[in-house]
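Weekly sync, protein design subgroup
Attendees: M.S., D.O., the rotation student, P.L. (late)

Item 1: inverse folding check
M.S. brought a backbone from last month's batch and wanted to see whether the design step gives back something sensible before we order anything. D.O. pointed out we never logged the input encoding, so this time it goes straight into the notes. Structure tokens as presented (392 positions):
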């Protein structure tokens, strides 16, 4: 006896296509969700006045003692807009034949990529635009706010102890408003136990709906931005970090023009001739860490962020900046490397620990004209001299 088998009738079967694309939920920028947003920028650069010098008060000796004078000073911090953009070319025939809204599927993933780039650049300096300030890790390291775990780390003490991460920023008068950590840090925190073996993390650091550290929300980015080779955990007062948007995420569909290879300038696609469209996404923003003068950090050398290093600390190189007037050393000069501050010592020297890259070095001292220069940091220590001219 014969029958119509499944194999014989296979050509008549119709496949069911589920109208859902299985994918992870797009992730947003952790930094932008924690930092303070300023009004949108109206140009490429925005200026924020920052308190630079605090006035002092003095006791007067006797009924006829002289009252001393004091003054207050301000500095400018600039936010410069950098652009993130991408073009996604798609043949029109593919759009017509697809069972899904391809553009609708691509757009949130591009927005996720923008968030990942912002987080990586701001926190770790990865692909940092040259016009942007140095990253949070560089700021924290310059202020001495990095903690090494050691051979047998006690993570409770490393975070909560007198020389721990939170204490590093509290000595400058800041309170932690957020923590960002690698996914591997979750297991380390779960392993923290009291003397009787009770998990401290479950009782004290984890709320009902979200993780918290000393009362501040804790995030574990899964957008690929957190570099665990540089840090395990970052804590800080994120209200001190500010950003402003010059151009919010803008999506435009192009159906004319050509797309060139950025390196060779060779035309890769001709949209009109090849019946293609291109999804162009653009985003522009700037950020800064103003670090205004406070009564606990009058010289603005501190930092509201601290980080826990991995077992093997990431390699940096020393930049030595010497400030003089052409012949004589100038102590007390304010030296900045992409927003990271230091004061020149009695020999006119200020030192920085930096990742490889190109930086803008500035030096200024009251009574002298400021100077700036570019410096490239590679695989060896670098020395730079800035000579200031005395004002007449």
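Designed sequence read out in the meeting:
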């Amino acid at each position: 006896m014969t029958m119509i088998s499944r194999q014989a009738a296979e050509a008549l079967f119709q496949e069911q296509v589920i109208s859902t694309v299985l994918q992870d939920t797009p992730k947003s920028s952790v930094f932008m969700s924690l930092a303070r947003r300023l009004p949108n920028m109206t140009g490429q650069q925005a200026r924020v006045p920052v308190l630079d010098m605090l006035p002092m008060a003095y006791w007067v000796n006797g009924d006829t003692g002289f009252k001393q004078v004091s003054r207050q000073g301000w500095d400018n911090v600039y936010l410069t807009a950098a652009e993130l953009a991408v073009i996604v070319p798609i043949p029109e025939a593919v759009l017509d034949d697809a069972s899904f809204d391809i553009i609708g599927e691509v757009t949130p993933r591009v927005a996720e990529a923008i968030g990942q780039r912002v987080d990586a650049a701001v926190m770790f300096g990865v692909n940092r635009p040259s016009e942007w300030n140095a990253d949070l890790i560089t700021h924290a390291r310059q202020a001495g706010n990095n903690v090494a775990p050691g051979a047998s780390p006690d993570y409770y003490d490393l975070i909560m102890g007198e020389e721990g991460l939170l204490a590093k920023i509290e000595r400058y008068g800041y309170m932690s408003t957020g923590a960002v950590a690698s996914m591997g840090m979750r297991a380390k925190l779960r392993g923290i136990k009291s003397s009787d073996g009770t998990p401290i993390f479950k009782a004290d650091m984890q709320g009902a709906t979200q993780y918290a550290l000393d009362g501040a929300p804790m995030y574990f980015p899964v957008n690929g931005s957190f570099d665990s080779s540089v840090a395990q955990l970052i804590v800080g007062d994120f209200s001190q970090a500010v950003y402003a948007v010059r151009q919010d995420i803008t999506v435009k569909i192009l159906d004319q023009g050509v797309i060139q290879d950025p390196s060779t300038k060779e035309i890769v696609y001709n949209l009109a001739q090849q019946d293609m469209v291109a999804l162009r996404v653009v985003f522009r923003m700037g950020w800064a860490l103003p670090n205004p003068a406070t009564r606990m950090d009058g010289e603005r050398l501190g930092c509201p962020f601290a980080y826990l290093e991995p077992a093997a600390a990431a390699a940096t190189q020393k930049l030595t900046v010497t400030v003089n007037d052409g012949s004589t050393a100038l102590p007390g000069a304010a030296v900045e490397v992409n927003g990271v501050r230091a004061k020149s010592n009695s020999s006119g020297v200020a030192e920085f620990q930096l990742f490889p890259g190109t930086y803008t070095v500035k030096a200024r001292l009251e009574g002298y004209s400021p100077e700036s220069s570019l410096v490239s940091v590679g695989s060896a220590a670098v020395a730079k001299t800035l000579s200031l001219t005395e004002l007449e």
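Discussion: The CA atoms of residues 162 and 168 lie 8 Å apart. The helical segments are 30-34, 92-97, 102-124, 136-142, 155-160, 165-170, 184-190, 200-205.
Action: P.L. to compare against the previous round before Friday.
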